[in-house]
Design goal:
Blueprint (H helix, E strand, L loop, with lengths): L7 H14 L37 H11 L7 H30 L5 H16 L1 H12 L1 H5 L4 H16 L2 H6 L17 H20 L3 H24 L10 E4 L10 E4 L2 H28 L3 H9 L6 H11 L8 H16 L5 H15 L9 H18 L9 E4 L1 E4 L5 E4 L5 E6 L5 E8 L1 H9 L3 H12 L2 E7 L11 H10 L3 E3 L2 E3 L1 H10 L3
Helix pairs in contact: 1-3, 1-7, 2-3, 3-7, 4-5, 9-10, 9-11, 10-11, 11-12, 11-13, 12-14, 13-15, 14-15, 14-16, 15-16, 19-20
Length: about 525
């Protein structure tokens, strides 16, 4: 099917010359249409191929000799074929080299212009495969369409096709071929790399102003860097480029490949530039957040550890941290915010917390710090208590080496070290970890006795925890910071009995009580 586009005369001449080149008999004559003729004798022997070039040796040495020295128009078909083949082998070698460079360039190991050129070729193939493949074939077979009686073109035809396939010449030249009919034109507009440069300048300005202590001005520069990053991502999407922050490889799907077809390509230049702009925006934001954290009371080491644990490209977490610090001026909220951030910094320093937990905790902290804080609204103290519990567990030596502590774990949770657990619906772990024996622990943390009593009065949570423990062998536990009001629990005997029957231990103000200890305390009416 591939050879259907080459005239029959071309194919037959090529076959005849290849037959002669490799010493075949009955090969016929190129002038006779390339068909074997009855009575044809063996190919003449001798070291000189009679091609007029004085080349000796085996057929490959002769071929490269002709490629180097050239032969006259009166040369034999074999000699001219190898001249063409020699030139074609050179083309193939160049193609293979360029193919390697093409692949390397997709990983951005080349100039930015080269990267954009190679992406352009791949984009042509993805958006217009039919015409792209035709253009590649036309370029690969140009020598096949040229020759008539000249065997040199036949040799070059043969190797040029191979070079185009093996060397990837078709792909890395595609962007330089003629404009393809029906191809999609990349929309014009602001150059995304320019926006990345603008973001970098704003980030540099933010860092300079932050060093000078001009934090309000530095924040304005950081905001400008973020605007440039947002615009860069928007423009990249308009140009059909992905701006995802995951691995550089991705799958682009096109209808021409069918329902399941896809071609693997690399992120296009605009997407890479948009990602770089986002990094610059993150750098600018961190330049302001560092001094703000120290103003709150965190030490330099803690502030650096927390910011290092957040990727420059994680705009959501950086934004959450910024908005949280905006509420630190409230004297009632500031202690809870400081405690939570200090604990998160300690957990991040030695990589003892899962990445999703850090992101989730920062998001919750942003929301909780923005809510009202009084006796009935305890979202901020509750979250601070959860994070503090995670730090206590991590510092206690209970956690299995190689695993991490999770905060706010739901559903499928990877605790590291090969420990992947799935918490069923309705079973949420404020803190989860694996102990040295491999047992999964689930801590339900409550800030205050009222919050704990509310859980005990619920008819849903305790049965689910008990069922999870029976089915998985895990260990649930209630952790309560009562603030010195532990004995208030015994004013609610029905709730105490429910806790005893569940066999779920409870830790109150640092001391743990199992079911038997709770029964004795209930009889006494106090701990």
């Amino acid at each position: 099917m591939v050879l259907a586009g080459i005239p029959e005369k071309v194919v037959s001449k090529t076959g005849t010359i290849i037959c002669q080149a490799f010493g075949g008999t009955g090969c016929g004559s190129p002038d006779g249409g390339g068909r074997p003729q009855a009575g044809d004798g063996d190919r003449p022997g001798g070291d000189d191929d009679g091609g007029g070039g004085g080349c000796k040796g085996n057929i490959f040495q002769k071929g490269f000799c002709h490629a180097k020295n050239g032969v006259s128009s009166a040369a034999s078909g074999t000699g001219n074929f190898f001249k063409g083949a020699g030139l074609g082998v050179w083309d193939a070698g160049v193609g293979i080299f360029e193919g390697g460079a093409f692949v390397a360039c997709l990983a951005h190991i080349c100039s930015h212009d080269g990267f954009k050129s190679n992406w352009g070729g791949l984009k042509q193939l993805v958006t217009n495969p039919k015409d792209s493949l035709k253009a590649i074939w036309d370029d690969a077979t140009k020598h096949c369409r040229k020759f008539t009686d000249d065997a040199e073109e036949a040799g070059r035809c043969t190797t040029n096709i191979i070079g185009s396939i093996v060397g990837g010449k078709g792909l890395n030249k595609l962007n330089k071929l003629k404009k393809l009919p029906g191809g999609k034109k990349t929309p014009d507009g602001p150059k995304v790399p320019n926006l990345a440069d603008d973001a970098k300048r704003s980030a540099d300005e933010a860092e300079r102003l932050a060093r000078e202590g001009k934090l309000d001005e530095a924040q304005k520069a950081a905001d400008e860097a973020r605007k440039k990053a947002d615009e860069a991502e928007r423009k990249a999407r308009e140009q059909g480029c992905p701006v995802a922050l995951g691995p550089p490889g991705l799958l682009l799907r096109h209808p021409s490949y069918g329902r399941t077809g896809a071609v693997a390509v690399a992120v296009c230049p605009a997407g890479q530039s948009a990602k770089q702009a986002r990094r610059e925006a993150g750098r600018a934001q961190k330049a302001v957040l560092g001094p703000r954290l120290k103003q709150l009371g965190l030490g330099q080491e803690q502030a650096d550890a927390l910011l290092k644990s957040i990727k420059d490209t994680d705009a959501n977490s950086l934004d959450a941290l910024q908005r949280t610090l905006q509420h630190a001026d409230d004297p009632a909220k500031a202690p809870h915010i400081k405690t939570a951030l200090d604990d998160l910094a300690a957990l991040s320093k030695d990589d003892r917390i899962t990445a999703p937990s850090l992101q989730g905790a920062l998001a919750k902290l942003k929301n909780a710090s923005g809510e009202k804080l009084d006796a009935e609204h305890r979202a901020l103290p509750s979250l601070s208590a959860e994070v503090n519990r995670a730090r206590q567990v991590a510092d206690s030596g209970q956690v299995k080496p190689g695993t991490k502590v999770a905060i706010g774990a739901k559903g499928a949770t990877d605790l590291g070290g090969g420990h992947k657990v799935t918490f069923p619906q309705g079973v949420d772990a404020d803190v989860a970890y694996v102990d040295s024996k491999g047992v999964v622990h689930l801590n339900e943390v409550k800030d205050g006795m009222n919050a704990f009593l509310g859980t005990l009065k619920s008819d849903k949570q305790i049965p689910k925890y008990s069922q999870w423990a029976r089915e998985t062998g895990g260990q649930p536990k209630f952790v309560v910071n009562s603030g010195g009001k532990a004995n208030e629990l015994f004013r609610h005997p029905a709730e105490v009995q429910k806790l005893i029957d569940s066999k779920i231990p409870v830790e109150i103000d640092g001391k743990t009580y199992d079911s038997e200890a709770l029964r004795r305390a209930q009889e006494q009416g106090h701990f």
